[in-house]
Amino acid sequence: MASSPPSKRRRKNHSEEDSADASLHEIPPLVLFAHGAGAPSTSDWMIRWKDMLGKALHAVEVVTFDYPYISGGKRRAPPKAEKLVEFHSDVVKTAVAKHPGHPLILVGKSMGSRVSCMVACGEEIDASALVCLGYPLKGMNGAVRDATLLQLTIPIMFVQGSKDGLCPLEKLAAVRKKMKSVNELHVIEGGDHSFKIAKKHLQSNGSTQDESEDEAVIAIAEFVAKCLGRK
């Protein structure tokens, strides 16, 4: 998905963003950012969002990594999400040991967000919040995969494109009502599973891809600030 360099991105709602920025300065969070099923941590999408999240959250570090099935540049089909939990948890533990005392925020793209939720359900991981970028609520057979979400007890934010076929918003709304954890939703209007918005939609709304993504990042920063008791 093409995008302007972060330094040239146009910003909206500066007062809201500045407020969230200031509140995150106290003890910067540690962010663990997991990739989706089809692209590694070195993909353009992951690099861009890593940069945006790091700046918006003033993170001490945004840790990205590759699951074993995608390492070495070979494209292989991902295993079931459950089989990635142990590896993901080990990455988290290593990062936490490197940055003791920093609140932990788990972030994931698509499959990575689902595995992040599974990791957060484990007793050994003490995360302050979860951010799911394009949660894949529907499985390949069309079934709603909500079991892990219903187990969660920590705050979680969903960032979803309104045209994401893997997560129909009406189905997500029904799941959110059943969840025990505090949960929020930010919708990128016209966005697909990777938040790409069609040019016709952008033109009709007088907006840009960058502006839509910037608004999502601002919402994430405000959510994290609330979870850390800083707003």
TrEMBL record:
It comes from the Eukaryota. It holds the Pfam family Abhydrolase_11. Residues 30-224 form the KANL3/Tex30 alpha/beta hydrolase-like domain. It comes from Tetracentron sinense (Spur-leaf). This is KANL3/Tex30 alpha/beta hydrolase-like domain-containing protein. Residues 1-21 are annotated as: Disordered. Gene3D superfamilies: alpha/beta hydrolase. InterPro entries: AB_hydrolase_fold (IPR029058), KANL3/Tex30_Abhydrolase (IPR046879), NSL3/Tex30 (IPR026555).
